[in-house]
Amino acid sequence: MIANQIGQQCDPKLHWWGLQWNPALFDFDSMSAEEEKKCWLDFQTAQYALMDVLSSNFATHEKQIIADHDPLVLTEKLIMQYSEMWDSKLLSFPDKAGYTPTLWMTTWLPFGYLCLHAISLKFDDTVVTDAISKCATLPS
């Protein structure tokens, strides 16, 4: 999952953050609650693993970016900023009881991807290894 999505640009104005999900593997409309939970756990694990790598490598220089992308902090900020737009304009989510577009967008928050992209905007690492820009622009 992370290999397919890490290079995609996340946009809070787009359905599912603009991330592409392989429909053969991720048919959320047909998933059982157990399958959906496993997928969500895999997604969360990937986001936290990416944040761990970013924190380990950039915490001394990019404390604020990393702090801004803490999932609780980011969720609160994004709800205040986008909730009204999400609930009025984003309609194509799986029909699951109790879910609103805002709940979907925050449940599937790509905080690790967003942090990576924010850090990559600050660095031009093409001289050394360009590892950040390679990760941030992997083809989907």
Describe it:
With 140 residues, this protein is an all-alpha fold. It has a domain at 33-86 and 111-140. It contains seven helices and no strands. Helix 2 packs parallel to helix 6. The longest helix is centred in the first third of the chain and has 26 residues, at 33-58. It is globular, with a radius of gyration of 16 Å.
Strand and helix layout:
Blueprint: H1 2-5, H2 33-58, H3 63-68, H4 71-89, H5 101-107, H6 111-122, H7 131-136
Helix pairs in contact: 2-6, 4-5
Q: Care to give the gist of this entry?
A:
The chain is an all-alpha fold. Helices cover 57% and strands 0% of the residues.
Give the helix level as a range of percent. Answer: 55-70%
Q: How far apart are the first and last residues' alpha carbons, in Å? A: 11 Å
Coarse shape: globular
Strand content: under 5%
Based on helices, strands and strand pairing, what is the structural class? mainly alpha
Number of helices: 7
Structure keywords:
140 residues; mainly alpha; single chain
